[in-house]
Amino acid sequence: MGNAVSIAQMQAAQAAPKNHENMMSSGANPPPECPMHQKDAKASADVKPPHPKMQATTVSASECPVKHDNSDVNPLNMMPPANQKPAPDQPFPLPTDRQTSSIPKVTEDGSVQYWQYPSQQMFWNAMLRKGWRWKNEDISQKDMGDIIRIHNANNEQAWKEVLKWEALHARECGNPRLKSFGGKASDYSPRARFRHMLGYELPFDRHDWIVDRCGKEVRYVIDYYDGGVVDNDYKFALLDVRPALDSVDNVWDRMRVAYMRWKFAALDMIQGPPSSPTSGKVDQ
Fold first, then answer.
1. What are the tens digits of pLDDT across the range 111-126?
2. Partners of residue 101 on adjacent β-strands
3. Is the pTM higher than 0.90?
4. Spatial distance between the Cα atoms of 59 and 2, rounded to a whole number of angstroms
5. Residue at 15 is within a domain
6. Which of 8, 94, 182, 199 would give a disulfide with 121, using CB separation of 3.0 to 4.6 Å?
7. Which residues have a Cβ under 8 Å from the Cβ of 281 and sit 6 or more positions away?
8. pLDDT for 138-161, tens place per residue?
9. In a domain, 169, yes or no
10. Residue 219 · residue 243 · CB < 8 Å
């Protein structure tokens, strides 16, 4: 999935596509929150949203499946009540409207509902709660809108990757849903640590998503790597999404996919690249 803020994603979303490199070089390290958030509808109505199904909403209840230590958390999504109030000495107002993602959520009555991205104000308050201070950064209202769009796009992309794995179980369950989510930015996965030993960079974030496969809980590990420049669809991160190696079924799925990748890679090497319709012809 995930195609749901974390230290990693905030580092990834430190800027708009135009000033992304400047924001990334500032060394900011804002903290995590949830996998889904939203944008300022008025300030950025001319910008293409990360997903066509996203819609503006004014629902104030928290819809982000992140664990917290609060005693008043919602047992369904492990989130405290939404904080939509402006923070003290906040330099500019932020919108409180939210968007609906394309990621279906687990509901008590089985109804079809989708996770909501927190508002820009909720995102700002979450960053402050985790230790980030705006006075240390050159950040504007527009930057916050771009941060939200990048974050949303990352999570929509993550859910699409989760669905590719869930396609292996389409006959078993045709409507998987995201049940909960947790950020583990400082807890690198074994694969990320192994890749780092080989000389590759560490991911800037990690999320664990719990997917409900028609009554069966399946944990997915998502490593987020720096993808460089933000594209026009606000995609930034390179995602490594796979089922966690904590069940026999997940291990078997990983083995099946590894075999298929090896098989088709070998066939490509044997057969060579497909020839074009004009191959073998000599230009006149």
1. 999 999 989 999 888 8
2. none
3. no
4. 22
5. no
6. 94
7. none
8. 788 888 888 899 889 999 999 999
9. yes
10. yes
